[in-house]
Design brief:
With 414 residues, the chain is an alpha/beta fold. The protein folds into 2 domains: 280 residues, Alpha-Beta Barrel (TIM Barrel); 117 residues, no CATH class. Helices cover 52% and strands 12% of the residues. The protein has 17 helices and 10 strands. The strands form 2 sheets. The protein has an 8-stranded parallel beta barrel with strand order 1-2-3-4-7-8-9-10, surrounded by 5 helices. β9, α8 and β10 form a beta-alpha-beta unit. α5 packs across α6 and α9 packs across α17. The longest helix is centred in the middle third of the chain and has 29 residues. The structure holds zinc ion (ZN). Zinc ion binds next to loops.
Length: 414
């Protein structure tokens, strides 16, 4: 399986918006941009919401059939490791091998020595086409990169071979992800990580580094935008170079786990992709669920009632809901509106506070982030929540499609 140049990871907490999400990709196609959809859901998300990988497969297959999509599409076992990959083998054909936890763990000395021996030819000045800066690399640098990342890459190799044994090498796409960690990887680190990935014979088609800055869930990028732009450009150049240098798959590209809505860096990314004629996989995570809430609130009546209740429940269970996402949210708890205040809001007021429109004075990033991680409250409403999604399907679907197409696809790829 060969992943296309442009692909978008579309998360869907409740698995009801597959068609609305696919409609956004189809709009892009009508506008002349070919993007393939990848439905992704992590083990963490499945556990919180009580769904199975087979549910995502069904959602994807149904959406594709109902809208008669004739392009490729994939189902991503997002952020899996050896301990849970088996649950995803059958339903998935895209595997995001998460090795972040093993970064920094001491590797085997002999293996590190072999890694340094193999790569010491790069000690000295390294020039990479497309990057003005010349990198000065020492054997010591290579050793410390090996010490920090080799164990993690070996682990990716183990997971890869486990999947390969079950599915056959050509029947799935492999991503290596290192994004859920505190420290960003520099472009030089990326270069040697890719050397290790090649040495480990992992045919990675996408690689997800941790970039500088904060990628909080559902809100904009926090950090130095010019610094990000430079880092992103250098990573794109490093990936191109590594493909030739180490014999990695030709279509290897970056995967950006955006946590959604990184509007301020989409522009710089778009420019770099065009400059290098590079591909990209972008995961937009779970803001589709927020579009559901916006739709319910805007619909009024019992829709708005549910939206208010979800917020009330989220405030009550703040610590429990935020805990698993601690590294990717920044909520000022004292600045949150009280549930009493929110219960007095109209549907429009609720939607304005939640919708990610930074030009709207009523937009509230604290409110938005809490609801982003608050999907467990809706999950526990069970049928009542799902029935409301059905009842207000039209207004919700319109929001979901417009969000993905207008705010994400257009700014990243067009
Ligand atoms: Zn991620």
């Amino acid at each position: 399986m060969v992943l296309e140049k442009y692909s978008i990871g579309i998360g869907d907490r409740f698995g009801r918006q597959g068609r609305a999400q696919l409609a956004a990709v189809m709009k892009a196609k009508e506008a002349g941009i070919e993007i393939v959809p990848v439905w992704n859901k992590s083990h963490r998300e499945h556990t919180i919401i009580g769904t199975l990988p087979a549910d995502v497969r069904k959602e994807a297959d149904d959406a594709v059939r109902l809208l008669a999509w004739d392009g490729s599409y994939y189902v991503d076992a997002d952020h899996i490791g050896l301990k849970n990959v088996d649950l995803f083998i059958e339903a998935s054909d895209f595997f995001t091998l998460d090795i972040a936890e093993s970064i920094g763990q001491a590797g085997n000395d002999d293996e590190i020595r072999a890694f340094v021996d193999k790569n010491k030819k790069y000690a000295g000045s390294v020039s990479i086409p497309g990057i003005d800066e010349v990198f000065e690399v020492t054997e010591e640098n290579i050793k410390s990169i090996g010490s920090k990342y080799l164990k993690a890459v070996k682990e990716a190799g183990e997971i890869y071979r486990h999947i390969e044994a079950a599915k056959g090498a050509d029947n799935f796409i492999t991503e290596v992800s290192m994004d859920e960690t505190d420290q960003p990887q520099s472009p030089v680190e990326m270069l040697f990580i890719l050397a290790a990935v090649a040495e480990e014979r992992i045919p990675a088609q996408t690689i997800a580094p941790k970039f500088s800055g904060r990628f909080n869930k559902g809100v904009d990028y926090v950090g130095d935008i010019d610094g990000f732009a430079k880092e992103f450009e250098q990573d794109v150049a490093v990936v191109k170079f590594a493909v030739k240098e180490f014999g990695l798959p030709d279509n290897l590209k970056l995967s950006v786990h955006s946590g959604s809505d990184k509007f301020s860096i989409y522009g710089p990314m778009n420019k770099v992709l065009k400059k290098f004629d590079a591909g990209l996989h972008i995961k937009t995570a779970g803001t589709t669920w927020l579009e559901e809430l916006i739709g319910l609130a805007a619909a009024g009546g019992d829709g708005l009632e549910i939206a208010r209740e979800v917020y009330g429940g989220a405030v009550e269970r703040f610590d429990e809901l935020c805990g698993p996402y601690a590294t990717v949210i920044d909520i000022d708890k004292d600045a949150l509106p009280t549930p009493q205040v929110v219960n007095g809001w109209s549907g429009t007021e609720y939607a304005d506070a939640l919708r990610h429109d930074q030009s709207c004075p009523k937009y509230d990033p604290n409110f938005r982030q809490l609801l982003h991680v608050g999907y467990k409250v809706a999950a526990q409403m069970g049928q009542r929540y799902l029935e409301a999604l059905e009842k207000y399907e039209d207004v919700i679907a319109a929001n979901v499609t417009a969000n993905i197409y207008q705010r994400h696809i257009r700014s990243v790829f067009m």
